[in-house]
Amino acid sequence: MVMVSIVTPLHNSSKFIIETIDGVILQSYTNWEMIIVDDCSTDNGVEIVEKLQKQDDRIKLIKNEINSGPAVSRNRAIEAARGRFIAFLDSDDIWHPTKLEEQLNFMQKNDYVFTFTAYDKINEKGEKVGHVEIPLEVAYNDLLKTCSIGCLTAMYDTRKIGKVYMPIIKKRQDFALWLKILKIVPKAYGLNRPLAKYRLTSNSVSSNKLKASKYQWKVYRHIEKLNIVSSTYYFLFYTIHGIVKKYFK
Questions:
Q1: Closest to 92 in 3D by CA, of 228, 205, 229, 178
Q2: Which helix H or strand E contains 145, and what residues bound it?
Q3: What whole-number distance in Å separates Cα of residue 101 and Cα of residue 30?
């Protein structure tokens, strides 16, 4: 069994981290390590993780010396990862018990390098409030128009492309990473089964559309170095897709 390294940044998520870790422990696929990087939390999240570490040594904890943001935290976890496959799971999201097993089978059966799955949306109480369908495949130009890859569902194969790190930006660093990978491989492939639950909180970028739009533009202009015409073109697609998704679906 190949190992999967699960990348989890932690910052003041004590309210949800137990449920997140439990979802990993309950995976039907058991050869994993969960690398949690704490970014100077001020709640008792670290104490919770340290307690769970004593019960399961597959859980690893790294502590940032200064508050550095999720991109740095995720990159530290990627750097420490020992697994062939890198998967991502934020500290307030949840995986379906067969998520790793189904996604790994999907990747290995089809020799895919980079994959993602459908997922449900839940509120802070854990109640389902939505569902996200996904395309069966996504190329670089497709992703520029709208990001259909949920961070909590993404997985890539380091044996095929090595370790790929997130650009150091405050928000939308996951979107920027997917674009980076799609300049190495031609496509990401979607498994259209809801194998994860994305929690909407008051701090979620997706819950603040203006903030999300600001960082979407930054990715176009400062990370991808697109000219103003191309950036505007893709930003219009992104905006229209957001309006359609909110009001017409």
A1: 205
A2: helix 140-145
A3: 9
Of 155, 149, 169, nearest in space to 224 by CA: 169
pLDDT band at 241 (very low <50, low <70, confident <90, very high): confident
Q: Distance between CA atoms of 228 and 33, rounded to whole angstroms? A: 42
In a domain, 191, yes or no: yes
Q: How many domains does the chain have?
A: 1
Q: Tell me how far apart the alpha carbons of residues 206 and 71 are, in angstroms, rounded to a whole number.
A: 17
Position 27 pLDDT exceeds 90: yes
Closest CA to 198 of 249, 115, 123, 136: 123
Residue 21 lies in a domain: yes
Residues 104, 83: Cα–Cα separation, whole Å: 13
User: Looking at the domain assignment, is residue 212 inside a domain?
Assistant: no
Range of the domain at 74: 4-203
Q: What is the chain's percent helix, strand, coil content, to nearest 5? A: 40, 20, 35
Alpha carbons 158 and 3: distance in angstroms, whole number: 11
Please check whether residue 123 lies inside any domain of the structure: yes
pLDDT, one tens digit per residue, over 67-90 is 999 999 999 999 999 999 999 999
CATH number of residue 154's parent domain: 3.90.550.10
Phi (first) and psi of residue 16, to 5 degrees? -120, -15
